[in-house]
Amino acid sequence: MKRQRYQAETKAVRGAANLEKKNGPLATPIYQTSTFEVTDNEEELRATHTDHFYTRYGNPTNTVAEQTIAALEGVDAALTFASGMGAITTTLMALLKSGDHIVAQRDIYGGVSKFLSQWLPKMGIETTFVDTTEYEQHERAIRPNTKLLYLESPTNPTLRVVDLKLVAAVAKRHNILSMIDSTFGTPVNQHPAEFGIDLVMHSGTKYLGGHTDLICGVVAGRQELTKKIWETRTTLGNCMDPHASWMLVRGLKTLAVRVARQNENALRVAGFLAENAKVRKVHYPFLKSHAQHGLAREQMKGGGGMVSFEVEGSGDEARRVSEAMRLFTLAPSLGGVESLVSIPVLTSHAMVPAAERAKMGVTEQLIRLSVGIESAEDLIGDLERALEAVAARQKVEVG
Fold first, then answer.
1. What percent of the chain stands above pLDDT 90?
2. Burial (Cβ within 10 Å: 0-12, 13-18, ≥19) of residue 117
3. Which of 41, 280, 287, 398 has its CA at a distance of 20 to 30 angstroms from the CA of residue 380?
4. 258 C-beta neighbours (distance < 10 Å), count
5. What is the pLDDT at residue 6?
6. How far apart are CA 375 and CA 294, in angstroms?
7. What is the side-by-side strand order in the sheet with 101-105?
8. pTM score, whole prediction
9. How many angstroms from the chain centroid is the CA of residue 168?
Protein backbone atom coordinates (compact mmCIF):
# COMPACT_ATOMS: atom_id res chain seq x y z
CA MET A 1 0.00 0.00 0.00
CA LYS A 2 1.29 3.45 -0.91
CA ARG A 3 2.48 5.39 2.12
CA GLN A 4 0.40 8.46 2.92
CA ARG A 5 2.23 11.78 2.62
CA TYR A 6 1.11 14.26 5.24
CA GLN A 7 1.36 18.05 5.45
CA ALA A 8 3.48 19.89 8.06
CA GLU A 9 0.53 20.45 10.40
CA THR A 10 -0.10 16.70 10.58
CA LYS A 11 3.58 15.75 10.82
CA ALA A 12 4.11 18.12 13.75
CA VAL A 13 1.35 16.39 15.72
CA ARG A 14 1.61 12.79 14.49
CA GLY A 15 5.02 12.59 12.80
CA ALA A 16 6.49 9.91 15.10
CA ALA A 17 3.25 8.08 15.88
CA ASN A 18 2.50 4.56 14.72
CA LEU A 19 -1.01 5.12 13.42
CA GLU A 20 -1.70 1.37 13.35
CA LYS A 21 -0.86 0.89 17.04
CA LYS A 22 -3.80 0.89 19.47
CA ASN A 23 -4.34 0.80 23.25
CA GLY A 24 -1.22 2.81 24.09
CA PRO A 25 -0.68 6.17 25.76
CA LEU A 26 -1.78 9.08 23.57
CA ALA A 27 0.76 11.45 25.09
CA THR A 28 4.44 10.54 24.79
CA PRO A 29 5.68 8.99 28.07
CA ILE A 30 8.75 10.43 29.78
CA TYR A 31 11.37 7.70 30.15
CA GLN A 32 13.05 9.44 33.06
CA THR A 33 15.79 6.89 33.49
CA SER A 34 19.55 6.90 33.04
CA THR A 35 19.83 3.19 32.19
CA PHE A 36 17.80 0.18 31.03
CA GLU A 37 17.58 -3.34 32.41
CA VAL A 38 18.44 -6.37 30.24
CA THR A 39 17.94 -10.09 30.75
CA ASP A 40 21.46 -11.19 29.77
CA ASN A 41 24.79 -9.86 28.49
CA GLU A 42 24.04 -10.76 24.89
CA GLU A 43 20.95 -8.57 24.98
CA GLU A 44 23.00 -5.75 26.50
CA LEU A 45 25.44 -5.92 23.59
CA ARG A 46 22.57 -5.80 21.11
CA ALA A 47 21.01 -2.83 22.92
CA THR A 48 24.13 -0.63 22.78
CA HIS A 49 23.08 1.18 19.61
CA THR A 50 19.41 1.48 20.54
CA ASP A 51 17.38 3.84 22.73
CA HIS A 52 17.05 1.15 25.44
CA PHE A 53 20.65 1.01 26.65
CA TYR A 54 21.82 4.20 28.39
CA THR A 55 20.31 7.66 27.99
CA ARG A 56 23.58 9.25 26.88
CA TYR A 57 23.28 6.94 23.87
CA GLY A 58 19.54 7.33 23.36
CA ASN A 59 16.16 7.32 25.05
CA PRO A 60 12.64 6.47 23.79
CA THR A 61 11.34 9.95 24.61
CA ASN A 62 14.23 11.51 22.70
CA THR A 63 13.51 9.18 19.79
CA VAL A 64 9.95 10.50 19.43
CA ALA A 65 11.24 14.08 19.20
CA GLU A 66 13.89 13.07 16.68
CA GLN A 67 11.51 11.11 14.47
CA THR A 68 9.01 13.96 14.46
CA ILE A 69 11.64 16.47 13.35
CA ALA A 70 12.98 14.11 10.68
CA ALA A 71 9.43 13.78 9.33
CA LEU A 72 8.99 17.57 9.32
CA GLU A 73 12.26 18.08 7.44
CA GLY A 74 11.65 15.19 5.05
CA VAL A 75 14.96 13.45 5.84
CA ASP A 76 16.15 10.07 7.07
CA ALA A 77 16.96 10.91 10.68
CA ALA A 78 17.48 13.60 13.28
CA LEU A 79 19.45 13.91 16.51
CA THR A 80 18.70 16.07 19.54
CA PHE A 81 21.28 17.86 21.68
CA ALA A 82 21.48 19.78 24.93
CA SER A 83 21.57 23.11 23.04
CA GLY A 84 21.70 24.62 19.58
CA MET A 85 25.39 25.40 19.94
CA GLY A 86 25.89 21.83 21.14
CA ALA A 87 24.29 20.57 17.95
CA ILE A 88 26.60 22.71 15.79
CA THR A 89 29.85 22.06 17.65
CA THR A 90 29.24 18.31 17.94
CA THR A 91 28.37 18.02 14.26
CA LEU A 92 31.45 19.90 13.10
CA MET A 93 33.73 17.89 15.38
CA ALA A 94 32.15 14.67 14.10
CA LEU A 95 32.67 15.47 10.43
CA LEU A 96 35.96 17.40 10.42
CA LYS A 97 39.57 16.71 11.41
CA SER A 98 42.80 18.65 11.74
CA GLY A 99 43.86 20.05 8.38
CA ASP A 100 40.31 20.46 7.07
CA HIS A 101 38.82 23.73 5.86
CA ILE A 102 35.34 25.30 6.07
CA VAL A 103 33.74 27.97 3.90
CA ALA A 104 31.16 29.89 5.93
CA GLN A 105 28.83 32.80 5.34
CA ARG A 106 29.75 36.02 7.06
CA ASP A 107 26.17 36.46 8.29
CA ILE A 108 25.76 33.81 10.97
CA TYR A 109 24.94 33.70 14.66
CA GLY A 110 27.71 35.28 16.75
CA GLY A 111 28.34 32.16 18.81
CA VAL A 112 29.01 30.11 15.68
CA SER A 113 31.27 32.82 14.27
CA LYS A 114 33.28 32.68 17.49
CA PHE A 115 33.53 28.87 17.40
CA LEU A 116 34.68 28.88 13.78
CA SER A 117 37.19 31.70 14.16
CA GLN A 118 38.56 31.11 17.68
CA TRP A 119 37.98 27.48 18.72
CA LEU A 120 38.33 25.36 15.59
CA PRO A 121 41.78 26.82 14.74
CA LYS A 122 43.02 25.26 18.01
CA MET A 123 42.09 21.91 16.47
CA GLY A 124 43.80 22.69 13.17
CA ILE A 125 40.58 23.50 11.29
CA GLU A 126 40.48 26.77 9.36
CA THR A 127 37.46 28.78 8.18
CA THR A 128 37.16 31.29 5.34
CA PHE A 129 34.26 33.72 5.72
CA VAL A 130 32.55 34.94 2.55
CA ASP A 131 29.86 37.50 1.82
CA THR A 132 26.53 35.77 2.28
CA THR A 133 24.87 36.36 -1.08
CA GLU A 134 28.02 36.68 -3.21
CA TYR A 135 27.97 33.10 -4.42
CA GLU A 136 31.06 33.41 -6.61
CA GLN A 137 33.00 34.11 -3.40
CA HIS A 138 31.74 30.81 -1.97
CA GLU A 139 33.12 28.89 -4.91
CA ARG A 140 36.42 30.80 -5.11
CA ALA A 141 37.04 30.16 -1.40
CA ILE A 142 36.84 26.38 -1.79
CA ARG A 143 40.22 24.61 -1.50
CA PRO A 144 41.33 21.00 -2.01
CA ASN A 145 40.98 20.46 1.77
CA THR A 146 37.55 22.14 2.07
CA LYS A 147 35.07 19.72 3.60
CA LEU A 148 32.02 21.79 4.48
CA LEU A 149 29.99 24.82 3.39
CA TYR A 150 28.25 26.41 6.40
CA LEU A 151 25.09 28.45 5.80
CA GLU A 152 22.31 30.28 7.62
CA SER A 153 19.03 31.44 6.08
CA PRO A 154 17.24 33.65 6.85
CA THR A 155 20.22 35.19 8.60
CA ASN A 156 20.43 36.52 12.13
CA PRO A 157 19.72 39.43 12.51
CA THR A 158 19.48 41.09 9.06
CA LEU A 159 17.27 38.37 7.54
CA ARG A 160 19.14 37.89 4.30
CA VAL A 161 17.91 34.92 2.29
CA VAL A 162 20.33 32.46 0.72
CA ASP A 163 19.67 30.74 -2.60
CA LEU A 164 19.65 27.19 -1.24
CA LYS A 165 19.48 25.41 -4.58
CA LEU A 166 22.46 27.38 -5.87
CA VAL A 167 24.73 26.85 -2.86
CA ALA A 168 23.78 23.17 -2.63
CA ALA A 169 24.87 22.81 -6.25
CA VAL A 170 28.19 24.50 -5.45
CA ALA A 171 28.80 22.05 -2.60
CA LYS A 172 27.92 19.02 -4.72
CA ARG A 173 30.10 20.23 -7.60
CA HIS A 174 33.09 20.23 -5.26
CA ASN A 175 32.06 17.07 -3.37
CA ILE A 176 31.77 18.83 -0.01
CA LEU A 177 29.00 18.79 2.61
CA SER A 178 26.53 21.62 3.09
CA MET A 179 25.04 22.47 6.48
CA ILE A 180 22.47 25.15 7.28
CA ASP A 181 21.20 26.78 10.44
CA SER A 182 17.49 26.89 9.58
CA THR A 183 16.30 28.16 12.97
CA PHE A 184 14.71 31.33 11.57
CA GLY A 185 13.18 29.40 8.67
CA THR A 186 11.55 26.61 10.73
CA PRO A 187 10.47 23.28 9.17
CA VAL A 188 7.10 24.91 8.47
CA ASN A 189 8.38 27.71 6.24
CA GLN A 190 11.25 25.99 4.43
CA HIS A 191 12.75 22.55 3.76
CA PRO A 192 16.45 22.93 2.90
CA ALA A 193 16.85 19.20 2.15
CA GLU A 194 14.48 19.61 -0.80
CA PHE A 195 17.04 21.97 -2.35
CA GLY A 196 19.94 19.57 -1.79
CA ILE A 197 21.32 20.74 1.57
CA ASP A 198 22.91 17.81 3.43
CA LEU A 199 22.38 18.76 7.08
CA VAL A 200 19.70 20.97 8.62
CA MET A 201 20.28 22.39 12.09
CA HIS A 202 17.83 24.10 14.45
CA SER A 203 18.19 25.72 17.80
CA GLY A 204 15.16 23.86 19.14
CA THR A 205 15.11 26.35 22.01
CA LYS A 206 13.35 28.71 19.62
CA TYR A 207 10.44 27.81 17.37
CA LEU A 208 10.47 24.04 17.82
CA GLY A 209 9.96 24.29 21.58
CA GLY A 210 8.07 27.54 21.17
CA HIS A 211 7.41 28.42 24.81
CA THR A 212 10.73 29.81 26.07
CA ASP A 213 11.07 27.04 28.64
CA LEU A 214 13.75 24.65 27.37
CA ILE A 215 17.20 24.61 25.76
CA CYS A 216 17.90 22.14 22.96
CA GLY A 217 19.37 21.68 19.50
CA VAL A 218 18.66 19.44 16.50
CA VAL A 219 20.55 18.22 13.44
CA ALA A 220 18.68 16.37 10.67
CA GLY A 221 19.89 14.68 7.50
CA ARG A 222 20.94 11.45 5.84
CA GLN A 223 21.40 8.34 7.96
CA GLU A 224 25.10 7.92 7.13
CA LEU A 225 25.84 11.43 8.40
CA THR A 226 23.67 11.30 11.52
CA LYS A 227 25.31 7.99 12.49
CA LYS A 228 28.73 9.67 12.56
CA ILE A 229 27.33 12.56 14.56
CA TRP A 230 25.63 10.14 16.98
CA GLU A 231 28.95 8.45 17.69
CA THR A 232 30.54 11.79 18.57
CA ARG A 233 27.53 12.84 20.65
CA THR A 234 27.80 9.72 22.82
CA THR A 235 31.48 10.50 23.44
CA LEU A 236 31.03 14.19 24.22
CA GLY A 237 27.89 13.50 26.26
CA ASN A 238 26.01 16.37 24.63
CA CYS A 239 22.65 14.58 24.79
CA MET A 240 19.21 15.87 25.66
CA ASP A 241 17.43 15.08 28.92
CA PRO A 242 14.25 12.96 28.52
CA HIS A 243 12.06 15.49 30.31
CA ALA A 244 13.31 18.26 28.00
CA SER A 245 12.60 15.96 25.04
CA TRP A 246 9.04 15.48 26.28
CA MET A 247 8.65 19.28 26.41
CA LEU A 248 10.04 19.51 22.87
CA VAL A 249 7.53 16.90 21.65
CA ARG A 250 4.72 18.85 23.27
CA GLY A 251 5.94 22.08 21.68
CA LEU A 252 6.23 20.50 18.23
CA LYS A 253 2.53 19.61 18.25
CA THR A 254 1.61 23.30 17.94
CA LEU A 255 4.57 24.34 15.74
CA ALA A 256 2.58 24.74 12.53
CA VAL A 257 -0.24 26.80 14.03
CA ARG A 258 2.18 28.99 16.00
CA VAL A 259 4.38 29.70 13.00
CA ALA A 260 1.38 30.48 10.80
CA ARG A 261 0.25 33.14 13.29
CA GLN A 262 3.80 34.47 13.68
CA ASN A 263 4.13 34.75 9.89
CA GLU A 264 0.96 36.84 9.74
CA ASN A 265 1.87 39.04 12.71
CA ALA A 266 5.45 39.65 11.57
CA LEU A 267 4.38 40.69 8.07
CA ARG A 268 1.94 43.21 9.55
CA VAL A 269 4.55 44.52 11.99
CA ALA A 270 7.12 44.84 9.21
CA GLY A 271 4.60 46.68 7.02
CA PHE A 272 3.88 49.15 9.82
CA LEU A 273 7.59 49.81 10.44
CA ALA A 274 8.26 50.28 6.72
CA GLU A 275 5.78 53.18 6.68
CA ASN A 276 7.07 54.83 9.88
CA ALA A 277 9.14 58.00 9.44
CA LYS A 278 11.15 57.23 12.58
CA VAL A 279 12.46 54.00 11.02
CA ARG A 280 15.41 54.09 8.62
CA LYS A 281 15.25 50.53 7.26
CA VAL A 282 13.26 47.34 7.79
CA HIS A 283 14.50 43.78 7.23
CA TYR A 284 11.81 41.18 6.50
CA PRO A 285 11.92 38.61 3.67
CA PHE A 286 8.28 38.94 2.59
CA LEU A 287 8.38 42.74 2.28
CA LYS A 288 8.59 43.79 -1.37
CA SER A 289 11.45 46.14 -0.45
CA HIS A 290 13.61 43.21 0.72
CA ALA A 291 16.58 42.55 -1.58
CA GLN A 292 15.78 38.83 -1.86
CA HIS A 293 11.99 39.15 -1.77
CA GLY A 294 11.48 37.10 -4.95
CA LEU A 295 13.80 34.34 -3.78
CA ALA A 296 12.15 34.27 -0.35
CA ARG A 297 8.73 33.83 -1.96
CA GLU A 298 10.09 30.99 -4.12
CA GLN A 299 11.68 28.88 -1.38
CA MET A 300 9.71 29.84 1.73
CA LYS A 301 6.04 29.32 2.59
CA GLY A 302 6.08 32.23 5.03
CA GLY A 303 8.41 35.07 5.96
CA GLY A 304 8.89 33.89 9.54
CA GLY A 305 8.42 35.56 12.88
CA MET A 306 11.62 37.65 12.94
CA VAL A 307 11.76 41.33 11.98
CA SER A 308 14.68 43.72 12.39
CA PHE A 309 14.79 47.44 11.78
CA GLU A 310 17.10 50.42 12.13
CA VAL A 311 15.89 53.54 13.87
CA GLU A 312 16.74 57.07 12.83
CA GLY A 313 19.38 58.44 15.15
CA SER A 314 22.08 56.76 17.20
CA GLY A 315 22.52 53.52 19.11
CA ASP A 316 21.20 55.33 22.18
CA GLU A 317 17.89 55.90 20.39
CA ALA A 318 17.69 52.21 19.53
CA ARG A 319 18.24 51.27 23.15
CA ARG A 320 15.60 53.74 24.31
CA VAL A 321 13.06 52.40 21.82
CA SER A 322 13.68 48.83 22.97
CA GLU A 323 13.33 49.87 26.62
CA ALA A 324 10.13 51.83 25.95
CA MET A 325 8.27 48.76 24.68
CA ARG A 326 5.95 46.85 26.99
CA LEU A 327 4.46 43.96 24.99
CA PHE A 328 7.82 43.30 23.35
CA THR A 329 9.82 42.04 26.33
CA LEU A 330 13.49 43.07 26.45
CA ALA A 331 15.24 39.69 26.45
CA PRO A 332 17.55 37.57 24.28
CA SER A 333 16.38 34.51 22.32
CA LEU A 334 13.39 34.22 20.00
CA GLY A 335 10.69 31.99 18.61
CA GLY A 336 8.37 31.77 21.59
CA VAL A 337 4.68 32.59 21.78
CA GLU A 338 5.51 35.90 23.46
CA SER A 339 7.12 38.80 21.57
CA LEU A 340 10.69 39.77 22.44
CA VAL A 341 13.01 42.64 21.54
CA SER A 342 16.80 42.82 21.66
CA ILE A 343 19.73 44.87 20.42
CA PRO A 344 21.99 42.50 18.43
CA VAL A 345 25.23 44.41 19.14
CA LEU A 346 24.54 43.81 22.85
CA THR A 347 23.26 40.21 22.62
CA SER A 348 23.48 37.77 19.69
CA HIS A 349 26.47 39.54 18.09
CA ALA A 350 28.16 41.10 21.11
CA MET A 351 31.03 38.59 20.77
CA VAL A 352 31.67 39.54 17.14
CA PRO A 353 34.31 42.27 16.60
CA ALA A 354 32.86 45.64 15.55
CA ALA A 355 34.61 45.55 12.17
CA GLU A 356 33.05 42.18 11.36
CA ARG A 357 29.62 43.36 12.55
CA ALA A 358 29.91 46.30 10.15
CA LYS A 359 30.51 43.89 7.25
CA MET A 360 27.36 42.02 8.27
CA GLY A 361 25.31 45.22 8.41
CA VAL A 362 24.73 44.82 12.15
CA THR A 363 24.65 48.44 13.31
CA GLU A 364 24.13 50.01 16.72
CA GLN A 365 20.79 51.33 15.46
CA LEU A 366 19.51 47.83 14.64
CA ILE A 367 16.67 46.41 16.74
CA ARG A 368 15.61 42.76 16.44
CA LEU A 369 12.03 41.68 17.09
CA SER A 370 10.81 38.16 17.70
CA VAL A 371 7.11 38.47 16.92
CA GLY A 372 4.85 36.23 18.97
CA ILE A 373 1.22 35.18 18.69
CA GLU A 374 -0.38 38.14 20.47
CA SER A 375 -2.78 40.50 18.68
CA ALA A 376 -1.00 42.18 15.76
CA GLU A 377 -2.90 45.39 16.51
CA ASP A 378 -1.60 45.41 20.08
CA LEU A 379 1.97 44.75 18.99
CA ILE A 380 1.86 47.53 16.42
CA GLY A 381 0.40 49.86 19.04
CA ASP A 382 3.26 49.00 21.39
CA LEU A 383 5.85 49.79 18.71
CA GLU A 384 4.11 53.02 17.79
CA ARG A 385 4.03 54.23 21.39
CA ALA A 386 7.70 53.35 21.91
CA LEU A 387 8.84 55.15 18.76
CA GLU A 388 6.74 58.21 19.58
CA ALA A 389 7.96 58.33 23.19
CA VAL A 390 11.60 58.32 22.14
CA ALA A 391 10.98 60.90 19.40
CA ALA A 392 9.24 63.18 21.94
CA ARG A 393 12.18 62.84 24.31
CA GLN A 394 14.59 63.77 21.51
CA LYS A 395 12.62 66.97 20.84
CA VAL A 396 12.72 67.93 24.53
CA GLU A 397 16.48 67.28 24.76
CA VAL A 398 17.17 69.31 21.60
CA GLY A 399 14.87 72.11 22.74
1. 85
2. middle
3. 398
4. 23
5. 84
6. 28
7. 77-81, 217-221, 199-202, 177-181, 146-152, 101-105, 126-130
8. 0.93
9. 18
